[in-house]
Every structure is written in C-alpha cells, then in structure tokens.
Design goal:
214 residues; alpha+beta; eight-stranded antiparallel sheet; two-stranded antiparallel ribbon; 5 helices; 12 strands; 16% helix; DNA-binding
DNA sequence: CTACGGATTTTCT
DNA sequence: GAAAATCCGTAGT
C-alpha cells in the first residue's frame, strides 16, 4: 500500500512517481478506477505558475500547504474542476496536477457521469461499443477526468492514502510506465520564465492504449 | 489538421 | 472588475 513517505518528496519527483498509479473514486458502493497517464508539477513559492507563488496563502490555496498526499481540488474557468495531489512536507505548497488518466475499472459508472455532467453532444448511445480511443477521450484532460469521476470541490483537502471507508484515494495496481516523456506545462503562458520549464510528464498513448506494462 | 469564441463563476486585486 | 493550471462546437485550411 502507498504510504505517506511516497508523497514526501518534491513535486517533480512525485509527478513522475504518480504515472501508473490508480486514482480511485467510490460512489454509492461502486468504484471507478483510472490509471494516471499525465501529470504536471507545481513547485510552490518559487514557481510563477503555482497558485502558491511567493507564498500566497488564501482560502483556496491553503490546502496546498498540507503535508504530501492530500487532494487539492479547485474550480477553473467557472465550469471545470482540477485535481491535484499535494507533495512534500507540511508548509511546502508543492502539488501535482493530474492531467489525464485511462479508465480501468467501473467504466459503466464513469460513462453515466459523462452523460450526466458533460456538455458533449456527440456521445454515442451505447457505451459498450466504444473503442479504446473513444474511452480515453472521456478522461484525457484535467477538467474531463474530474467530470467523468465526479470530482468536485467537495473532495478538496482529503487524505489520498487508502482506507476502508474512503471514497477517494490513490492505489498501486502494478501498472509500470515505459518511457516517461516530458515537456512544458499547458495553459500557463502568464508564468514568464517558468512557462518553459519541462514539468509536464506523460507516457505515450497510442489509440487510447498507454505505454504501461503490468 | 488548426483557430476561434462562448460557456460560466470562483477567486483575488 | 478581470483573470483563470479548460472544454466543446463550428468554421476554415
């Protein structure tokens, strides 16, 4: 089982370690499990792209200052949630944004959520005929994966360590990434010199099939 | 394939 | 009052 030490490292290290781990959401006794394929590191007070740049401490950002392994969920552009995991020790506001996942368990429930909460109009009537590429397109963005897994601000600040009564946590199901690629982070043009830093990490995904061995 | 605008509301200045 | 760690449909190449 993943323990606290796993999260007690800098954000860049954690962003790479989270690739291949399973984000688990339980709703009404059913489980949705999605394997993480893309992450971004936000490096706290020294990172102009970070909400906590310069030590900013507001109602929103205070959960970033928690110890490693807690959820940081916030609303972006008025309509989408973004899911992060805090990194490093308490008082160091580093975090890892989860940018994309691959649906693994609970696909039916996941598809129900997309139908209920997504603004997409061109959804197929029958989800059981979806190709791997179609399925991956339901969760290949930070807002999309939160819609599909019904992750909202109500889940902000929760401990992501696995426990029997938790309905939101991270688990190791044994997926091992192949080559880990990296590049600049997305949507942070305002961050000046930090906008170029290669702090986005991802595995290659071909036709909806990520580069994992198990 | 790329480019653009609209949706929508919390958060911070 | 403006910006925001985004997504989706439409139009153009």
């Amino acid at each position: 089982m993943i323990n606290r030490d796993f999260y007690t490292c800098d954000g860049i290290t954690l962003a790479k370690k989270l690739l291949g781990k399973t984000l688990v959401r339980r709703i009404g006794g059913d489980e949705i499990g999605c394997v993480i394929t893309e992450t971004e590191a936000y490096m706290g007070v020294i990172d102009k792209a970070s909400h906590a740049y310069g030590g900013r401490m507001t109602e929103r950002t205070k959960t970033m200052y928690k110890a490693g392994g807690y959820s940081y969920v916030y609303l972006i552009y008025g309509m989408y949630s973004c899911m992060n995991v805090t990194a490093n020790a308490e008082g160091l506001p580093e975090a890892v944004l989860i940018r994309a996942v691959m649906p693994y368990t609970g696909l039916d429930l996941l598809c129900e959520n997309v139908k209920k909460y997504s603004r997409r109009k061109n959804l197929p009537d029958k989800f059981d005929t979806l190709t791997p590429k179609d399925i991956y397109s339901l969760t290949n963005g930070p807002g999309k994966l939160c819609t599909a897994m019904n992750i909202t601000k109500a889940l902000n600040g929760l401990d992501m360590l696995e426990s029997p009564d938790s309905d939101f946590f991270i688990r190791d199901d044994g997926f091992v990434p192949g080559e880990i690629l990296s590049g600049p982070r997305i949507g942070i043009d305002y961050a000046e010199e930090d906008a170029m830093k290669p702090w986005r990490f991802y595995v290659n995904v071909k036709n909806g099939k990520p580069d994992f061995s198990k």
